[in-house]
Amino acid sequence: MQLYSRRFGEGKPVLILHGLFGSSDNWLSFGKALAIHGYEVHLLDLRNHGQSPHHPVFDYASLSADVIEYIETSGIHLPVVVGHSLGGKTTLKLAVTAPHLLSGMVIIDIAPRYYPVHHRQILDALESVDFNLMKSRTEVEAELSKSISEPAVLQFMLKNVWWKEKDKLAWRFHLEAISLNIENVGEPVYPEGFFHLPSLFIRGEESGYITDADETDILEKFSGSEVVTAPGAGHWVHADNPEWLMKTLLEFLGRYAKY
Length: 259
Prior knowledge:
Shape: globular
CATH class of the largest domain: Alpha Beta
CATH superfamily of the largest domain: Alpha/Beta hydrolase fold, catalytic domain
Strand content: 15-25%
Order of helices and strands: EEHEHEHEHHHEEHHEHEHH
Helix content: 25-40%
CATH architecture of the largest domain: 3-Layer(aba) Sandwich
Number of strands: 9
Number of domains: 2
Number of helices: 11
CATH topology of the largest domain: Rossmann fold
């Protein structure tokens, strides 16, 4: 599958993969800022998100295969891949499947373990929106706010509303495929045998996605990995503490990014 991407800068290659319900647009400011430091930054839209194609198959095998295709067809040599949440699990799958294609990976606020489905309420809220009745973004916001009380989550979802046709609003993401395959989003991703790829796991201080038990598991299963905590950050580390994330990422890239 040919993924949509945004590219900035020149230098050592870095791929950034967004989280569930997100897109490359979520990392636009961060990606541009990173490129200034001498990196060729690729912001990808994963399948069924943003401007990439929609497909009924939605699991980490297909998500990672898409990224492998992107790396190979774009002629990218040994990138560091940075993945947040869904993008983090996709990066893990990519790294354990084809470690020879990467020079390192950075996993943001997700562990390799199994996660039970915890997006059902949000999916129900999204599925409650009948775009045949919606004439404006304001009406979509009013409908979603009946079920989504957190302002940040609400605004995050509203970023995915677009004019598919002149008088027709729609979701950017493939809601049906995501909803039908939501169990796959929580599946575990572990290496078989020895794993040597340089790896940095970042957890948000105020997020519960990576626990102390997860840290022990990560350090055991991913040889040479490091787990660090982003101060004052929740799940969206790049939004909550972008300055710390930039500093931490640049330090990692300085050690492991290659041409």
